[in-house]
Design brief:
The protein has 221 residues and is an alpha/beta fold. The chain has one domain: 3-Layer(aba) Sandwich (Rossmann fold), CATH 3.40.50. Helix content is 41%, strand content 18%. It contains 9 helices and 7 strands; from the N terminus they run αβαβαβαββααβααβα. A 7-stranded parallel beta sheet has the order 3-2-4-1-5-6-7, with helices on both faces. The N and C termini lie far apart (44 Å). It binds guanosine-5'-triphosphate (GTP) and magnesium ion.
């Protein structure tokens, strides 16, 4: 019985997510859902991306956290529209659902918008189970988390279109093995687009920035 109820919830979420995806495509707006562990560097990465494309691409951000507006305040300082979703009233959900994303996204001035980035709630489990309606799912993995995460949390890496290996500046001190992480990513999903960078300094960002430009072009074709 419980399984049936959960399936119903997921089906309703998926249907709304698909509608949202089509709606934003029709408006020429790219929606990117960024997922990753707490502290992987999601907010720093978003901030760096927005700064790199300032004057070229207009961004808005949907911030997902169980509680607090810390990240939303950080990103608002970039002069972009930000909406915070706190999941505390929804049993402290560890993911974002399509209905919340739709409402948040529709609150933006869509005329002056190119890309919406969703910073999902920090963890590698629940966000992978709920389609947000984004066009692209991106998972950010930082070097201190180790090379084994794709094998331990495979769903996250299967539902993602791209993976960002962040904090590569810490590679030597952590003895981080790029060959091993690449092998583990290939085992789980060899179609994943891969970016290796340091959000703190912006090193290695050009490939990622080109990808964002290209995805926006694809949405508008
Ligand atoms: N050395 C290093 N530190 C980084 C890098 N990117 C982010 N950090 C640091 O990692 C810490 C967490 O970064 P955040 O951007 O807040 O991470 P987050 O994933 O948004 O965290 P939550 O929203 O709390 O889940 C901060 O102290 C950042 O300065 C990086 O590329 N290298
Ligand atoms: Mg954050």
């Amino acid at each position: 019985m419980e399984i049936k109820i959960l399936q119903k919830v997921l089906q309703a979420n998926d249907a709304l997510a698909e509608q949202t995806r089509q709606y934003f495509k029709s408006k020429g707006i790219l929606v990117i859902n960024l997922m990753g562990s707490p502290g992987a560097g999601k907010t720093t990465f978003i901030s760096r991306t927005i700064e790199a494309l300032k004057g070229e691409i207009n961004f808005a951000v949907i911030e997902g956290d169980i509680t607090s507006t810390i990240d939303a305040e950080r990103l608002s300082r970039l002069g972009i529209p930000v909406v915070q979703i706190n999941t505390e009233p929804f049993d402290g959900a560890c993911h974002l659902e399509a209905t919340w994303i739709k409402d948040a996204a529709l609150s933006f001035d869509l005329q002056n918008l190119d890309v919406i980035i969703i910073e999902n709630v920090g963890n590698l489990v629940c966000p992978a189970e709920f389609d947000t309606g984004a066009h692209k799912n991106v998972v950010i993995l930082s070097t201190p988390e180790g090379e084994d995460k794709p094998l331990k949390y495979p769903l996250m890496f299967r539902v993602s279109h791209a993976v960002v290996i962040n904090k590569i500046d810490l590679r030597e001190i952590l003895d981080y093995n790029l060959e091993v992480i690449n092998q583990n990513l290939t085992t789980v999903n060899d179609a994943l687009e891969r970016f290796i960078l340091t959000s703190k300094t912006g090193e290695g960002f050009s490939h990622w920035i080109d990808w964002v430009r290209n995805q926006l072009k694809i949405i508008r074709d």
